[in-house]
Amino acid sequence: PFSSTGPLPTGTVRLDRENISCIGKTRGQERIHSLYLQQNQIEKMENLECFPNLRFLCLAGNRIQRVQNLQGLSQLSLLDLSHNLIQVLDTEELPRSLRILDLAGNQCTQQEGYRDGVLAALPQLLQLDSQPVQGSAAEEEEGGGSCSSEEEEEEEEELLPVLRAPFTVDRGFLGDVRRELAGRARLRRALSLEEHRARLQELRERRALLLGPGQG
To answer: To 10 degrees, what angle do helices 149-163 and 185-211 make?
Structure first.
């Protein structure tokens, strides 16, 4: 099982392909914003309330049969549950904060009315099973109009200095996101901004720890 008695060392935790069978209780994980547990042997979604500030959760390629215990994750933006054993989906169990959801490879995606039901339950969704959502509430909030490739490059250059060392553990994630969302400017911008905010907060916290009180 995956568990811990103290805070983990970084905002991103990668425990993929570790033969983990369950998610145990863990304390002091308020700083964790990204959790990668893909390609394990996990059968149940549990104890996720221990990560109240989680924004990215990957549980792809496990043995999960039911979506549950996500109500405490009010900031969750990306949820990857692809290639599990979910036969019936209860949309009430999905956080309304989700922007990207992947359930591909689960039997529940073959249910009649599956996509319409998910979109009705998640008004902020930008992407479902690798397919963009047209006319979503989140898309309308952004004001319409796609970002040009030149503008995208400028935004990425602005973010990259923050995402480089010492956060080397996150390079793989950034690359995955870029490949997955290539050609979809709004989706990439939404994820980049979420990750950027998390990095800035982490940098502020580390700076405060290094300088001590009253020197920030």
So the answer is: 20
CA distances from 130 to 92, 104, 161 (A): 21, 8, 28
Name the region of 61 (left: φ>0; alpha: ψ -120 to 50; beta: rest): left
- The rounded Cα 31 to chain-centroid distance in angstroms is 14
Between the alpha carbon of residue 84 and those of residues 21, 51, 106, 112, the distances in Å are: 14, 22, 6, 19
Question: Using CA atoms, how far apart are residues 5 and 128, in angstroms rounded to an integer?
Answer: 35
* CB-CB neighbours of 62 under 10 Å: 23
**Tens-digit pLDDT profile for residues 25-69:** 877 788 889 999 999 999 999 999 999 999 999 999 999 999 999
Three-state DSSP class for 27? coil
pTM for the structure as a whole: 0.64
Residues with Cβ within 8 Å of residue 130, at least 6 apart in sequence:
102, 104, 180
